[in-house]
Design a protein that fits this description.
The chain is α/β, with parallel strands linked by helices. It has 8 helices and 10 strands. It binds fructose -6-phosphate.
């Protein structure tokens, strides 16, 4: 695991966007795994700005989103389809048929999930998977005790996640209890995993993910098993890491040839 601690979420988002842009420039037909929620918003803003100002070209890029709520149509204001359109896809030149987001209205969910896995495989696998982390340590919507080898499937949200995500829904509207999510095994198959976390509310989960035991009770800890997991944090999210000075020292002494997206 590489842990990078930056002063604030703006610097962190800029670095993460730089890493994604570097990949797109090197491999124009790369496959991105994308996430929703508050954390990636700054990254998507940076990518849109790079598209507008520097001509960053998404025309050959393919994407697969991590998850979607069961029962929400793509038009629903809180659906992840809508989130992705409004925050990224409406502003870049990725062809519509290159975009994949789990279908919350799928009728035969097990066979739909199998076809989502097959589509990832057919696309050549995910080159870079962008991730956030839940306050309960979830990865995608793989809640505590999810199998660490799980594949795309239906999951029931933890009460904590329902409370955390209520902010995306209107007053009186309930957060769906079920989701379709890539599994932890699906996520670990990505060539690079790039997890971003901001704010004190994530500090405990981040400490468990990086320095705790690998355990299904904290699904994000499975990233310790990944060959190339990069964790980018702001100071607050890093505040409970015992070895934070070491991570800072490693980052400050990185050889130039290892620096990606840091120009
Ligand atoms: C979103 C996802 C979730 C979020 C996590 C953090 O597609 O899979 O794991 O990354 O819940 O959400 P925010 O960024 O809103 O704190």
């Amino acid at each position: 695991m590489e842990v990078i601690i930056l002063p604030d979420s703006k610097a962190a988002s800029r670095l993460a966007a730089g890493m994604i842009a570097d990949l797109i420039r090197k491999k124009s037909n790369c496959v991105l795994g994308l996430a929703t929620g508050s954390t990636p918003l700054g990254i998507y803003r940076e990518l849109v700005s790079m598209h507008n100002m520097e001509g960053l070209d998404f025309s050959e890029v393919t994407s697969f989103n991590l998850d979607e709520y069961v029962g929400l149509s793509p038009e629903h204001h809180a659906s992840y389809h809508r989130f992705m359109q409004e925050n990224l896809f409406n502003h870049i030149n990725m062809p519509k048929d290159h975009v994949h987001i789990p279908d919350g209205l799928a009728t035969d969910i097990p066979s739909y999930c199998q076809s989502y896995e097959e589509a990832i495989y057919q696309a050549g696998g995910i080159d870079l998977q962008l991730l956030g982390i839940g306050t309960d340590g979830h990865l995608g919507f793989n809640e505590p005790t999810s199998s660490l080898t799980s594949r795309t499937r239906i999951k029931t949200l933890d009460r904590q996640t329902i409370l955390d995500n209520q902010r995306f829904f209107q007053p009186g509207e309930s957060v769906p209890s079920h989701v379709i999510t890539m599994g932890i095994g699906t996520i670990l198959d990505a060539k690079t995993c790039l997890l971003i976390a901001f704010g004190e509310s994530k500090a405990e989960a981040v400490a468990g993910m990086v320095e705790g035991p690998v355990a299904a009770i904290l699904p994000a800890s499975a990233l310790q098993l990944h060959q190339k997991a990069i964790i980018i944090l702001d100071e607050a999210a890093a505040s409970k890491l015992a070895k934070r000075e070491y991570y800072q020292w490693v980052y400050d002494h990185k050889p130039d040839w290892q620096k990606v997206g840091q120009s």
